From TrEMBL:
<dbReference type="Pfam" id="PF16656">
    <property type="entry name" value="Pur_ac_phosph_N"/>
</dbReference>
<dbReference type="InterPro" id="IPR029052">
    <property type="entry name" value="Metallo-depent_PP-like"/>
</dbReference>
<dbReference type="InterPro" id="IPR039331">
    <property type="entry name" value="PAPs-like"/>
</dbReference>
<dbReference type="InterPro" id="IPR008963">
    <property type="entry name" value="Purple_acid_Pase-like_N"/>
</dbReference>
<dbReference type="GO" id="GO:0046872">
    <property type="term" value="F:metal ion binding"/>
</dbReference>
<keyword id="KW-0479">Metal-binding</keyword>
<protein>
    <recommendedName>
        <fullName>Purple acid phosphatase</fullName>
        <ecNumber>3.1.3.2</ecNumber>
    </recommendedName>
</protein>
<keyword id="KW-0732">Signal</keyword>
<keyword id="KW-0408">Iron</keyword>
<dbReference type="InterPro" id="IPR041792">
    <property type="entry name" value="MPP_PAP"/>
</dbReference>
<keyword id="KW-0325">Glycoprotein</keyword>
<feature type="domain" description="Purple acid phosphatase N-terminal">
    <location>
        <begin position="54"/>
        <end position="145"/>
    </location>
</feature>
<dbReference type="Pfam" id="PF14008">
    <property type="entry name" value="Metallophos_C"/>
</dbReference>
<dbReference type="InterPro" id="IPR025733">
    <property type="entry name" value="PAPs_C"/>
</dbReference>
<feature type="domain" description="Purple acid phosphatase C-terminal">
    <location>
        <begin position="380"/>
        <end position="439"/>
    </location>
</feature>
<dbReference type="GO" id="GO:0003993">
    <property type="term" value="F:acid phosphatase activity"/>
</dbReference>
<comment type="similarity">
    <text>Belongs to the metallophosphoesterase superfamily. Purple acid phosphatase family.</text>
</comment>
């Protein structure tokens, strides 16, 4: 009898052997179909009716704390008005703010008139209506300002990346909108329109993307990160200024955080401190981005904003074959700082798949000591790759094998995520795949704050 028990124990040990890898590679297999862009005549791209009607409306936070909103839009036929009329729903007193208009050319394309208007001194936690355009083509929208910055302010972020404008992109955005968990602002991790997929980077696809996303971007701020598809760097047609279309169309409040470039900056929103980095700008020692981040991280006051979140495009911890190790150079530069400052969460895109890491770091290596594997580190962030918006390049379904220990969950499906910050200690995170019903959480974790409650919130079975 004792021998049987012994065999049984050995069997159990062997059976659970693969768990030393820790994580889960989801057995869910999405039917692989090509992702194709929706045609220009699709209803999601429809132009608002009327001559010179404002289109491609989008908003983002306009200052460091959430009392300002940058409203951006395009008028196609003539400059028109750059004025935003806005009022708080509770008192109807109308205010006006006037912005500026810009245009740009990209090879054989000339943009419409791109308006940016920063409306400031808003009240916190207030519903505002705003109106753009004139006469018959006036359009109205609304947004909510966030609550005042504070350590226990609940707030829910949506997370999307690499969205594009395919039928799958439309499903992703619809799932985000229909999710019973209501995101109040979107953290977007880069790669918006994929206009560069087309000949001469057909910038009409930047316009159509603006019209497609408007149903969300006009009503809640999207916090922008630049990806490689924002570069639009094409010397063969004389386009040598990186990020030209993106920077003309999408404005961010970078000066409010002491940044010198719109590609890296920070904001506070409710109980979160969001740092946006640029994977495609210089970050080596002494560069402006390096210097800014070096000075930025010590400024974060966790008693005011407990949740320290970083957005970037190219992931540091990615076990998909697609873009494998592309984020390595930035990881080498900045990872020790992330651990020192106890960053809670790092969100990236770029890989068209979903992956969540455990809390690991790989900062011990010093050329000669051989310590070059990621190790569990409860001061380290969780790294989440959410580049699964559904763009024209399709799914990245080939993973490195075996699944590394640091990888807690990975799956090649399109989707989006939500992060529900509850208070200074807990935030509930969920990833939703497009193939499921709106309320289904395919991967979810209760994260605990690294400053206030640094307990082990790993989900793998070992270590
Ligand atoms: Fe990318």
């Amino acid at each position: 009898m004792g021998l049987y028990v012994c065999f049984f124990v050995v069997f159990l040990m062997l059976y659970h052997g693969p768990c030393i890898n820790g994580g889960i590679t989801s057995s869910f297999v999405r039917k692989e179909e090509k992702s194709i862009d929706m045609p220009f005549h699709s209803d999601v791209f429809s132009h608002p009716p009327g001559y010179n009607a404002p289109q491609q409306v989008h908003i983002t936070q306009g200052d460091h704390v959430g009392r300002a909103v940058i409203v951006s839009w395009v008028t196609q036929d003539e400059p028109g008005s750059s004025t935003v009329v806005y009022w708080a729903e509770k008192n109807n007193q109308k205010f006006k703010a006037t912005g500026r208009t810009t245009t740009y050319k990209y090879y054989n394309y000339t943009s419409g008139f791109i308006h940016h208007c920063n409306i400031m001194n808003l009240e916190f936690d207030t519903k505002y209506h705003y109106q753009l355009g004139t006469g018959q083509t006036t359009r109205r929208f609304w947004f909510m300002t966030p609550p005042p910055v504070g350590p226990d302010v609940p707030y829910t972020f949506g997370l999307m990346g690499d969205l594009g404008q395919t039928y799958d992109s439309n499903v992703t955005l619809t799932h985000y909108e229909m999710n019973p968990v209501k995101g109040q602002a979107v953290l977007f991790v880069g790669d918006l329109s994929y206009a560069d997929y087309y000949k001469f980077h057909d910038n009409s696809r930047w316009d159509s993307w603006g019209r497609f996303a408007e149903r969300s971007t006009a009503y809640q701020p999207w916090i922008w990160t630049a990806g490689n598809h924002e570069l639009d760097f094409e010397p063969s047609i004389g386009e040598t200024k990186p990020f030209k279309p993106f920077l003309h169309r999408y404005r961010v409040p970078y000066k409010a955080s002491g940044s010198t470039e719109p590609l890296w900056y920070s904001i506070k929103r409710a109980s979160a401190y969001i740092i946006v980095l640029s994977s495609y700008s210089a970050f080596g020692m002494y560069t402006p981005q390096y210097q800014w981040l070096l000075e930025e991280l010590p400024k974060v006051n966790r008693s005011e904003t407990p949740w320290l979140i970083v957005l970037m495009h190219s992931p540091w911890y990615n076990s998909n074959s697609y873009h494998y190790m592309e984020g390595e150079t930035m990881r080498v530069m900045f990872e020790p700082w992330f651990v020192e400052h106890k960053v809670d969460l790092v969100f990236a895109g770029h890989v068209h798949s979903y992956e969540r890491s455990e809390r690991v770091s790989n900062i011990a290596y010093n050329i000669v000591n051989g310590e070059c594997s990621p190790v569990k580190n409860l001061s380290a962030p969780v790294y989440i790759t959410i580049g699964d918006g559904g763009n024209i390049e399709g799914l990245a379904s080939i993973m490195t094998e075996p699944q590394p220990k640091y990888s807690a969950y990975r799956e090649a499906s399109f989707g989006h995520a939500t992060l529900e910050i509850k208070n200074r200690t807990h935030a509930y995170y969920s990833w939703h795949r497009n193939s499921d019903g709106y309320a289904v959480r395919a991967d979810s974790v209760m994260f605990t704050n690294r400053h206030w409650h640094p307990m082990d919130d790993s989900t793998s079975k070992t270590e």
